[in-house]
Design a protein that fits this description.
The chain starts with a helix and ends with a helix. The chain is built from four helices and four strands. It is rod-shaped and about 75 Å long. A hairpin with a 2-residue loop joins β1 and β2.
């Protein structure tokens, strides 16, 4: 009788573990899909082509560029783009404008946290 209870309990635990692994896998796969950017972000960064600074990806890290047309980064931060949310990575691909140094530092602090 106790053997049957142990077997049933073990079966329940194995089933729960399988369901947990499946749910985790689905969450991981969902995170790899391209995220839709919230409208407030796309509106906030639209029409700012004259910004002094731009954040973009360079060699797998967040880099600071002087102006939109700069080819080489002025600085490369230790912030790895792989550690960012998919929405942030999508914004970096387009370039995140910063009008001045204060806004640039605020953006870097946000991405680094």
């Amino acid at each position: 009788m106790i053997r049957k209870i142990k077997a049933a309990l073990l079966l329940c635990l194995m089933s729960a573990a399988g369901l947990s692994v499946n749910a985790a896998w689905q969450d991981i796969r969902r995170g790899q899909l391209p995220a839709q950017l919230p409208t407030e972000l796309t509106v906030r960064f639209a029409g700012r082509e004259d910004a002094a600074w731009y954040l973009r990806e360079s060699e797998g890290r967040v880099a600071v560029f002087e102006g939109r047309k700069a080819k080489e980064p002025a600085a490369v931060t230790p912030i790895e783009t792989a550690s960012l949310r998919s929405a942030d990575r999508q914004l970096l691909a387009d370039g995140i404008p910063a009008a001045d140094t204060a806004e640039l530092l605020a953006l870097l602090e946000d991405l680094g946290s």
